[in-house]
Amino acid sequence: MTPTTQQGHHKRRSQIRIRALVAAGALLLGGGGTAVIASHASAGGERSAARPAAAATATTIACPDVGDRLSEVPDPARVKVSEGLAELDAQVARAYGQAAAPGGDRSAVLDELKRQRSGTIGRMADAIGEQAARPAALTGLSGCTARQVGTESKESDGRTNVLSRAMPGGPAPADFADIRTAPAKARPANRAGGSAGTFTSSCGRNENGHFNSDNVIVTPGVSNGAHHTHDYVGNLSTNAFSSDRSLAAAGTTCTNGDLSTHYWPVLRLLDGKAAPDANAPGGGHDGNMGKILRPASATIQFRGSPVSKVSAMPRFLRVITGDAKAFTSGPGNANASWSCVGFEDRQLTDKYPVCPDGADVVRTLAFQSCWDGRSTDSANHRTHMAFARKDGSCPRGFRAVPQLVQRITYDVPAGTAFAVDSFPEQLHKPVTDHGDFINVMPDALMAKAVACVNGGRRC
Fold it and tell me: Which end of the chain is more exposed for a tag (fewer CB within 10 A), N or C?
C-alpha cells in the first residue's frame, strides 16, 4: 500500500468512526431521535434511499451570564446572590426545553423568561444594595435570545454523513474531529530565571465515587447548583455546603496530605444504556444522559513559570478555569483542551477528539497561573486570577503562582460516543469543559511545592 493510499485509508476510517460516534451520541441525547440518511455507495454503486429528514438546525437559548458580570458581593448578600444565580440557571433550562419543543412559541417563551429573570436579578441587586452600591447595570441582563444551531455537517469530500442532522441535545456531527487534524500547541520557551520544576499530588481517580451536582464556588449553599454532575478528587467532604473550616477538617484521597478539592464535569458514555442517575438531579433530570465514565487516570500537577519564580498560593484560594456557558456566552472565558494519549502536542478546543485505535481520550485543564496577591476569591470568581501572557509573563499587578494542571484520561470504547455534562442549553458542547479548584494545602506542603517548582525538581 502506498503512503497516499494509506492516508486515504486512515482518513476514511476516521470519517466512519466520527459518524458512528455522533450517531450514538445524538440518539441518546437527542430526546426525540435523529434524521439518518445513507451516505456511501453500496457495493453495487447505488446510494440507499434517505429516511425522512428533520430540520438541519436545533434551537437553544442564549442569555447574558449574570454571575460573570458581578463586581462586588458583600458577605451578607452571598446567600441570596447564590440562590439567585441557581434560580437563573433553572429558568433558562426550563425555557430551553419549551423553546426546543415542536410547536413551541419561542416569542412567548422568551417574554416569560425575561419576566422571570428580571424579578430574580432585581432581588439579587437589592440584596447587594443593602450592603453596597446597588448594581443597576445587572437589570439590563434579563433579556435572552433564541439561537438556531446548525446540526448538519459535510465531509471534506462532499458526501453527506450517515447522521446528517441531530435533534436538540447534541452532540452534533461537527463536534468531533480526528485528533491528527488538530493544530500543534505552541509553548513559551523557558528563560533564565524561570521555574521549570513540577509538584504532583497523587489523589486517585475518584475510586470512592464522590459525585454531586453542586458547585461550592459559584453557588454555595444551593443543592444541584451546577445542574450537571461533578467528579471529585482530593478533599472528601466537598459539597455545596462546605466551608473553609469544614474543608480543613476533612480527609483526602491525596497520598501526600493535600486537602485541596478538585472537581470537573463528568464525561458520559453514550452507548444507549440507562445510567443509575437517569432520573436524578445532575443526571437525566437535567438532560445529562448516559453512564458516567470513570477516568483511567487523573493527574494533579503544579508547574512553574517559564520566565520567573513562583510564589505560594494562599490557603483557600478558589479558581475556576474554562466556562460552563461558553457555547452561548462566547469563547472569552473558554479554556477547554481535548486530545489523545500519544498526540498531546495537538489540542482541540471546541471539538471532541476521535482517537486512533487504542489511544485514550485526554482532557487537560490548565488553570490561571497569575494571582493578584490580595484576594482568595472575587465576585465573579475570575478577576483575582489571570492567565500568563503568550511569553509566559504575568500581567501587571499579578504575580506568578504554581500553575495547576488537571489531566484526565478516559478509555473510551472504540466507536462509542461520549459527551461532557453541561447545562441543558449548552448542548453538551466540548467548548464548555471546565475545572474547579480550592487550595486547602497545609502551608508546609505548599512551601514544599513552591521549592520543588522553583528548584527545577520533580516532586
Answer: N
